[in-house]
Specification:
148 residues, alpha+beta, Nucleoside Triphosphate Pyrophosphohydrolase, seven-stranded mixed β-sheet, 2 helices, 42% strand, globular
C-alpha cells in the first residue's frame, strides 16, 4: 500500500488535459488532497507501469473513457504542508493533452463529479496556475495538431 499522506519520498502522478473543441474536462475531487476542488483527471503511477500506461488506466478507472494522448504539456509539483509545516502530501505530476476516442465521461473512483468547461471560464472552476498553464499548453498543442 502506497503511503500518500506524510510520504517518505515524492510520489509520481499523471493528469490529463482532456479537450473537446475549446472545452476541458474537469473532475471534482472526491478524496484528499484537494477534496471538493475542481482539477484535471489523473492519479498515481503504479510500480512497473509507464506514465502513459498509468494515464490510460487512471482515465479508464476514474472516468470510463479511452483517450488518444496528443503529447506532454508539463511537469508540476504539488506539495501540501500541514499546520506545522511538515510535508503532508508531495506529488510530481506529469500532465498530458488528450482527446477521447471511446466512452462518455462519468464520475467513478476518485472523481465526485465531471464537467466540460469552456477554456475561457476555467478560472471560475480553478485558480491553480499550474492547471491554467497546463490547459493553455494543451489547447495550443490541440490547435496545432488540428491545423496540420
Amino acid at each position: 500500500m502506497i503511503k500518500r499522506e506524510y510520504p517518505e519520498h515524492p510520489l509520481v502522478g499523471v493528469a490529463a488535459v482532456v479537450l473537446r473543441d475549446e472545452r476541458v474536462l474537469l473532475v471534482k475531487r472526491g478524496k484528499h488532497p484537494g477534496k471538493g476542488e475542481w482539477s484535471l483527471p489523473g492519479g498515481l503511477v503504479e510500480l512497473g507501469e509507464t506514465v502513459v500506461q498509468a494515464l490510460h488506466r487512471e482515465l479508464r478507472e476514474e472516468l470510463s473513457i479511452a483517450v488518444e494522448i496528443l503529447g506532454p504539456v508539463g511537469i508540476y509539483d504539488r506539495i501540501v504542508r500541514d499546520a506545522d509545516n511538515n510535508v503532508q502530501y508531495h506529488y510530481v505530476i506529469v500532465d498530458y493533452c488528450a482527446q477521447i476516442v471511446k466512452g462518455n465521461p462519468r464520475a467513478g473512483s476518485d472523481a465526485a463529479l465531471v464537467k466540460w468547461v469552456h477554456s475561457k471560464f476555467l478560472e471560475k472552476f480553478s485558480r491553480d496556475p499550474k492547471i491554467i498553464k497546463a490547459v493553455s499548453r494543451g489547447l495550443r498543442l490541440y490547435e496545432n495538431r488540428a491545423s496540420s
